[in-house]
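Notes from hallway chat w/ T.B., transcribed later so I don't forget. T.B. wanted the structure written out for a chain they're using in a teaching module, and asked if we could keep both sequence and structure tokens in one place. Agreed to drop them here.
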Amino acid sequence: MNNRTIASLALLAGIFVMEGYDIAAMGLAVPRLGDDLGIAPTSFGLVFTALLVGIGVGGALLAPYGDRFGRRALIVVGAASTGAFTLATSTATSVPEFLVWRGLTGIALGAALPNVSALSAELAPEKLRATVMAIVSAGIPLGIAIAGVLSPNVVGAFGWHGLFYVPGLLALALAVGLWLLLDGGVPEAADKDGNAAKAPQILLFRQPWVIPFAIFAAMLAFNAMNLYLLNSWLPTVLPQAGFEQDLADRVSGIVQFAGIGIGVAASFGIDRWNKGLTLVLMFGAMAVCFFAVSITPPDRTVWTLLLCVGVGGASAGGMVLPGLCVYFFASRLLSTAIGMGVMVARLGAFAGPLIGQAVLDANAGPQFFFMVAAIPAAICAVVALLVPVGLKVKEREAGGQPVPA
């Protein structure tokens, strides 16, 4: 890879860092809004969900245009819009205002992120595409980690508003840098195909692609449910188990560093080892760790170690699963498959914050919260057993060239 390619991948990774920080910002702000705005934390379930629905809408309706007109425009406009809407969130004073700004932020992110993933795959060496995609998307847990670790300092300096200043300004800076650095042409795959389909999304619901898409989307949906359940409510749940608020914030950040390691290792397994077994082991370990937390008394050291695998694994899933698209779908469908996967995932994932709100409203306790988190992880492990079926579809479409399971 030349220097321009490496610089492009670094800035694309920055988009994911910004997204991770942005995802964490609302969850970190919620416990602090009561004193400033007089809004109870349990009022924000729909606000968390608005971001997810917006990402799904943007991913399904806007991101596929990257397969037709080039990825640069979708990435740059999406990043700039995300920055503007995130900064606007810092001005909100009521739940409806938070709802509007987080929904618009989600639409902008949904337009950009699938194209960031697809472009990173196209820039990567052929035998390391999933690994490079995972390293780039490692920005999500890195951004979440940075937000959690730095939140006491940011809030101390700027109040809860500062939690939105950081990702908003970063998004605007990245938009400028990527506009200057990226090429602006139509994807190579679209050029080879001539005129791309006007509605490429439909292809994913027809043979032969419906089977791999169903497998991919199911894992993405249940993992996203866990990701947003955990990242939305972890800073609120851990204090109920005896963690001080600042410690809870930092733990919610620390576990993301483990997620980066898990994600890179699992993606390397997808590139160079057994794709299905790699995912079964990752999701199975998550389920076991959440179950272990749910049956043990609160202990800061033990719970933090277990949550590094559980919560970190959920973040790793968001890194790893888009890389599976390289082996499941033709290159001309990459942005479409990832974008539609994001939409389907959000249709399932919007339930995550609401499930967490229901657990908190019922006063069921932190241990029951983590018992609930074990269920989606276990479902993902079962679905991962079907990965070889999806790989055979790509093999047939590639003219019989085998794709290792």
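Follow-up for T.B.: The domain at 3-397 is CATH 1.20.1250.20 (Growth Hormone; Chain: A;). Might be a good example for the class.
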